[in-house]
Amino acid sequence: MVEPILSVRGLQTRFFGTEGTVRAVDGVDFDVYEGRTLGVVGESGCGKSVTARSVLGIVDRPGKVVGGEAWLTRADGSRVDLFRLPEADMRKVRGREIALVFQEPMASFSQHYTIGNQIAESILLHMGVDEAAARKRAIELLDMVGVPQPDRRVDEYPFQLSGGLRQRVMIAMALACDPRVLIADEPTTALDVTTQAQILDLLRHLQQQRGLAIILITHDMGVIAEMAHDVAVMYLGRAVETGPVADIFARPQHPYTRALLRSIPTVMAKPRTRLPTIAGSIPHPFNRPQGCAFNPRCSESLGAVCAAHEPPAVTADGHEVRCFIHGGQP
Amino acid sequence: MIAFVTRRLLLGLVTVWLISMLSFAIIQLPPGDFVDAYIAQLSASGSTVSAEEAAAMRQLYGLGQPIYVQYGKWIFRVVQGDFGESMEWRRPVTEVIGDRIWLTLLLSFSALIITWGLALPIGIYSAVKQYSFGDYAFTLFGFIGIAVPNFLLALIVMYFSFTLLDANVGGLFSADYLLAGWSLGKVWDLMKHLPLPAVILALGGTAQLIRIMRANLLDELRKPYVVTARAKGVAERKVILKYPVRAALNPFASNIAYLFPYLVSGSIIVSIVLGLPTVGPLLVKALIAKDMFLAGTIVLLLGVMTVIGTFISDLVLMWVEPRLRHQMD
Predict the structure, then answer these.
(1) Is residue B197 classed as helix, strand or coil in its secondary structure?
(2) What is the ipTM of this complex?
(3) Counting one residue from A and one from B, how many pairs have CB atoms under 8 Å apart?
(4) B253 pLDDT exceeds 90?
């Protein structure tokens, strides 16, 4: 049994607003392994991005991680719980062991510094080298992610680059200190389809080369099918179904996963037929439904039991699912 | 970029020229001229001026001629560096203004430094610690600073320093140095007198800039690039100072332009109250006496300073904002 690099158990993140508390992430478990990609999929607002930020301890106020464990296996083999690490030690994890790639490459760069400056920043911070060496490494990284003329580009500002190049630079910046876990939060959402494919290729290539563990957050089942080895389907702050990607696509067990898969357009469909959608909309986080959160929108609801109790995790057809139709005691 | 700077300089010259015409015209607008004001002043004190004398004076100053001729003669001499003679003081305008222009600049510049020195850190603090006790305290101070006119503040400070400290805070020099020539002792005396009026002048602008800085920074703090910096493992203090504060500085740079003339014109009443030897009180007196050449010169100077301030502010903005710099190429 291979040990996961990052193992998250029972993660709970809440936002303490003036109008009440929002349970953005409410008991999420997942494991990430070296050289494998975990796809985290779900609709907007289901807590995907907050999960990523929680792991790094950079949830914005008034958000706070209130429960759970996140065990990171460090390079030397020791294991630490990130949620119990002092802030100063946590800073050595950020960018060094776990790095983030964001959705909007334009907004995620400062427009006031050159890309070289922003890449070199974490190198200077974590690698203990001088500025000349950091700059040299920045150029190498740009070259590695396929930025043409890296020695010239290094002195340019983010607004001088195209969207695709910016996302490449963002990946270069994340990989600056050879992290072992890369969290990519909707890395291709803001890009056109061709560029999207190129960026995903790049990520896959880098993963094979370096044995990166990737957490890929997306709402796009197509991206999941192409990239992920394992999948966690999230709904309202919970992972409702987790398992190997082939299983999830071939034999989805949770009604929500099935609904998601049904709503993917396909070229095989009869022309001019309506694409199935999931009935209703995501409840407002303040009005989280009692029992199973998906129950009000569920076409396979069992009625009273689903409305009253939260389903526990059960194993169905080889992977984990939280739904009463597969048994489990309320 | 050089093209841009040259264009701005030329435009600045045109602006100054327009200001000179406008100011000359505005000074002429009220009925009567300097001689009328002079006669009225003399008759108030009991003496009279004969019709011949008045005519001779008008002849001397060229007051009978059409306004564009007067303007033409004036501007022609101004270009040559001759600002004419003050009618009221009967001395060359340059001599009347003399050190006052430098003292005004010194005072304004000190006030500007104090404004920035206070507003920047307080604005950052207020934004980072939004809704904290300190933020509320500075907000209160800020609104009081905006609401209280600074001449009133000057009066209050004067009153208390006189009654409580038994010190007279008026002027920029003590009596010993007032008429003395420049010496080290006089400079030191000036340095001792400078801080109080500078602080009084700075307070209104400081309060405004704190609000601006706080609002800007609050916007910037929520931007994704701040999260990027945190995710790199940068320490929180450095994250804030390097990224969002840098972005929030833009409006600061563009503010120089309008802060600069404000500090000069806004200081007039404070200067009168505190008896400061700046150009403000001189301008007021010159306008009342319809002393055209003196008033025209001062208004022209203010115009030139505004244009220079705007120019400097453009340069600073280009320096702090790479996007602007690259648009130009």
Answers:
(1) helix
(2) 0.85
(3) 78
(4) no
Judged against a pLDDT cut of 80, whether residue B30 lies above it is answered with no
Average pLDDT on A114-140 reads 93
Contact flag A58-B230 (C-beta cutoff 8 Å): yes
Cross-chain CB nearest to B227 (options A58, A157, A173): A58
Q: Where are the domains positioned within chain B?
A: 2-97, 100-276
Suggest the residue from A16, A102, A108 to mutate for an interface test with chain B (most B CBs closer than 10 A): A108
In A144-282, beta strands by DSSP E: 181-185, 213-218, 230-235, 238-244
Least confident range of A41-50, B114-123, B218-227: A41-50
Burial (CB count within 10 angstroms: exposed 0-12, middle 13-18, buried 19+), residue A231? buried
Helix residue spans in chain B (DSSP H) = 2-28, 34-44, 51-61, 67-79, 93-97, 100-128, 133-147, 150-163, 184-193, 195-221, 224-231, 236-242, 244-265, 267-274, 279-288, 292-320, 322-328
Residue that has been written with the tokens 């841009």 in this structure? B4
Q: Do A58 and B231 touch (CB under 8 A)?
A: yes
Q: Write down the residue that tokens 């029972």 correspond to.
A: A10
Answer positive or negative: Cα dihedral of A194, A200, A203, A204: negative
Identify the CATH assignment for B100-276 out of 1.10.3720.10, 1.10.10.60, 3.90.79.10, 3.40.50.2300.
1.10.3720.10
pLDDT band at B179 (very low <50, low <70, confident <90, very high): confident
Across the interface, of B222, B224, B323, the residue whose CB is closest to A104 is B224
Structure tokens at B50: 């004969």
Residue A159 to residue B232, Cβ atoms within 8 A: no
Q: Closest approach of chain A CAs to the CA of B115, in angstroms?
A: 24
- Calculate the alpha carbon distances from A55 to A64, A71, A215, B226 in Å: 11, 10, 11, 17
How near does any CA of chain B get to the CA of A92, in Å? 6
SS3 A17: strand
